Amino acid sequence: MAIATFGIVGAALSDIVLIGAVSLGLGALLATSQVWFEVLKWLGVAYLCYLGIRVLRQAGSPTVAPSDSAPKADRLIRPVFLRSFLVAVTNPKGYLFFTAFLPQFIDPTAPLPSQYAILTLIFVTIDVMVMGAYAALGASAARTMRAGAQKWIERLCGSSFLLLATGLAFYRRSAE
């Protein structure tokens, strides 16, 4: 669960970056510029493929050995944080989501920075609570799971990353 906390922090930071970028107009740029949308989309595809292949290769290998868990856990913190952060910030759908979702809660006659800050705080709080619940459930399930079942779940996760990369590769913005 401690390592998952760093993944949660990475995802929360990505929420802040996504909302900040949308508040500065990047979401509108991605919504109107096919070139920038494609650049970000293909970065996301490449990163998801990398993650999928990496997870599939490591399926079944122990992540943290019980006898020497502290040093190995320390080495996992940064990759878990970065993986969680990069999955979100390289996905153009996140930018498009916030571009479509946030304006309904923004009053154009009031100061924008404070409104975006409040919305960011609300969204990050909800996201951290939901991801924390998932992490707790996952940690509980992992303790009761046999190694063979864990290996299959890791294979499923790796395959899911590759499937998501394929879906993202074929994703087209809807014509307006």
TrEMBL record:
Statement: the UniProt record of this protein carries the keyword Transmembrane: yes
Major subcellular location class: membrane
Segments traversing the membrane: 7-29, 35-53, 85-106, 118-140, 152-171
Membrane topology reported for the UniProt record: Multi-pass membrane protein
One Pfam family in the UniProt entry: LysE
A cellular component annotation (GO) from this entry: plasma membrane
Record protein name field: Threonine/homoserine/homoserine lactone efflux protein
